[in-house]
Amino acid sequence: MLSRESILAADDLPREEVSIPEWNGTVFVQTMTGTERDRLEAAYNKEPGKDFRARMAVATVCDETGKRLFSEKDILPLGTKSAAALDRILEVAMRLSAFTKKDVDALEGNSNASPSEDSASSSH
After folding, report:
1. Among 3, 57, 78, 119, which residue's Cβ finds the most Cβ atoms within 10 Å?
2. Where are the domains of the chain?
3. Can you name the residues that pair with 16 across neighbouring β-strands?
């Protein structure tokens, strides 16, 4: 059985390098923490449909050590960047964070499911 110490010490935030040709380089995208996902969902619930891609980028884009590159103040400027570039980040961020289409639908009110209801059962 896992101990408190082993759970808190676990390195459970994998990251992946993602090529962004629109920006002439690569970024790292990291799994969201539980707190980051809660913040993203809360912000989305306040303003559904607003800046989802940019918010996801803020929550997941990092350097090679896992340090976030953006903060909440970067949401609006990021939202003005290429949708194709943001979609590349979104695709990896959703996969790494077990964020499904059903989760997005639930946030948008298109489903009766809770936002993370099927995350545990989604494929990785």
Report:
1. 57
2. 14-111
3. 29
Q: Which two tokens stand for residue 55?
A: 């918010």
Cβ(18)–Cβ(92) below 8 Å: yes
- Which run of H or E residues covers position 9? helix 4-9
Supply the pTM of this predicted model.
0.79
Name the residue with tokens 């990785």.
124
Position 46, amino acid: K
Residue-wise pLDDT for 51-89, tens only, equals 989 999 999 999 999 999 999 999 999 999 999 999 999
**Amino acid residing at 109:** G
**Lookup: tokens for 33:** 């923490």
User: Residues 66, 46, 34, CA angle at the centre, nearest 5°?
Assistant: 30
